[in-house]
Amino acid sequence: MNEVGIDLSQKLPRCLEELTDNKFDYVITLGERTFDHHNFQAPETIHWKFDNPVAPSNDPEKQLRTFRMVRDQIARRLRLFVIVHVRT
What we know:
Radius of gyration: 15 Å
Strand content: 5-15%
Largest sheet: 2 strands, parallel
Order of helices and strands: EEH
Oligomer: single chain
Number of domains: 1
Helix content: 25-40%
Shape: globular
Low-confidence stretches: none
Number of strands: 2
């Protein structure tokens, strides 16, 4: 993420249980597993499936290329999502 100007060094993962009292306009899930979102206050849930970047290879260089590809796919989809859903 540093490659695209996002510093995650001070960020820590959070448990879903920590977020259940928050209200969201959208919940976007990623990956192959389904997500039980019944505890979230969100009027719309969207599921985006992306390939697991670790699965294709044990080769670190190939994994890095795959991580970059998935990162860029998510970024493109988020930009489109904002254009379609957020603009008034």
